[in-house]
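Hey Z.,

So I finally got round to the NAP thing we talked about over coffee. Here's the setup:
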Amino acid sequence: MGAIDSHVTDEEIRSALDAAHVPSLLLALVHLTGDLSLIRGDIRPAPEFLSDAQDGVPDEAQARARQLAFDVLVAARDSAQELPGDPDDAALVEMMAYLTGQQVAPEYLEFLTAELAMRGEDAYAQPALESVSRQARQQLKVIIIGAGMSGILTAIRLQEAGIPFEIIEKNADVGGTWYENTYPGCRVDSGNHVYSYSFRPKDWPQYFSSQPVLREYFADAADAYGLREHIRFRTEVLSATLDESHGLWRVSVRDAHGVESELSAHAVVSAVGQLNRPKMPDLPGVGSFVGPCFHSARWQHDVDLSGKRVGVIGTGGSAFQFVPHLAEVAEQVTVFQRTAPWVVLNDQYFAEVPDGVHWLMKHIPFYAKWFRFSVFWKSAEGLLASVTADEGWNRPEESVGEANAVLRQQLLDAMREQLGDDDELMRLCTPDYPPGAKRALIDDGRWFRTLQRENVVLHGDGIESICERGIIDAQGREHHFDVLIYGTGFSASDFLTPMRIHGVGGVELHQQWNGDPRAFKGISFPGFPNLFCCYGPNTNIVVNSSIIFFSECEVRYILGCLAELAARGPGTLMDVRQDVHDAYNERIDAGNAQMAWGQSTVNTWYKNSAGRITQNWPFRLIDFWQQCRQPDVADYRFSRGG
Ligand code: NAP
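And the result:
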């Protein structure tokens, strides 16, 4: 069979091409023809942060590209033409430059070919496992804490590696954040074609899918790999204690009946996420409101909100998504904003993926892969320059550099377009910190349209306290509500709480941190051998991309550590060296100091009480990918229990 199915019709091709992302399409044609001249002409993307869905390719050039593609695809179909073979490295570098509109460092080549499995590779496979016998791997036992996105991922990789594992999950089902957050309007804010496991692409129904679709994606992954039989549901980990003499972790758990028991394993992988312990505001009177009252992550679906006066605290990612739905049913919604969010408009945010795009992804080799890379670039590496500080730039309430100032103005212009001549709303919605100092929120303008509704009030004067009937604002005015909803986020910086974790010499991890969580590569903690973490300190993202990318890198690294433990035999302990850990954290701190989130003085949960950024990764994603390829044994001290 040729590269293009001989049964596809001219009409199918034509109508699919109407929906094509033109830059990805032309790159797919290069694979089909081997002809680089297709991307050397004047049909060129010029992607920008706020660029359109076609990345700046003008309409007239799009039409030419579609006609060109039609001719190439029909010819390929009719001649039953095979793919001519992989583009060589030089060609791939040129293709990346074409898509991104800039020279891309050659080091991305390996990343690209692996991440996109351009040549059929498994990007995150851990080669070190191959040198360890299956028997040695089977002697290890690993406990994974959490069956959300990264716990499922860890389990899949351990299963592939033949390493026995058990997952402890506090909820009644898998899915983590996508299981817990059921508030109306909940959907992902990273492009779904990147927000998916590299080895399990999906033909997503929307560019940014809703919570039920994501929950199903992770549940399907768990089912496909038969993971449920390895999971203890409705069981919470209370503590983990290192038994140095046996080279084991003793993990105490409590099941749904309140029965406590102890499990043991050679290694523990924490995959508990960061955003799962709802945080109530530290306001006087919390708890005194007499009506229905709940946190967004514990949405009470049985509370009828129609015709009600509803108070909302918070304008973070969650409130941003549920308030527009609330406004449709409630009589009156008052939103209490402490800090205005930056809003990025994206026309595709609620859009269905058109049939034509589904068709292209299915029928045109490499179209889906280049589209994924385009989403990756535009949401990650391509954004870093605009949130990086320029030396000597000193406008901390506004911007951190020239590119950042341009971005700020673009965002303000877009906001003004949405809010028209409503100067008061414009004032309230304008953040007093640089773009990138907090994660921006994405929609197609729905938030701004909601704020302009008759039944919605955005309140920006602060809250003094919660009272029996509602909220007392900073001016002492009382606002009465029927229902109060907290969109106040999570205890993200209290990593691994409320578990108590005792390592070498009985030291407790949180006491060791003393409010300043740190890790080596976000994964290992000195004094806590064989404890590995997904989504640990300094692995969070501000500019978008996908947290799944980080988890895939982390799990590959952890598999490398486990390969080392298996090779040295059960009972081996590997403990990251303090000096290595400290030097790593110095580098991270220096990196964060250069970024908008490190420079700005705005209050965020990325910082600890001393102002140190404990959450964020400051460098390129390729740097994280590279540092997680496999552990360097020189970074660790090895010992044997007993
Ligand atoms: P969040 O981003 O932490 O936002 C919490 C909001 O509550 C902020 O507006 C905060 O104001 C406000 N707040 C907290 N304490 C307050 C107090 N005492 N008084 C007044 N206001 C208070 O939490 P979230 O919205 O639940 O989002 C959590 C994370 O999940 C974010 O990283 C978000 O990006 C992510 N998320 C992602 C998606 C998605 O993928 N689509 C959806 C939802 C959430 P300040 O800003 O002043 O602190």
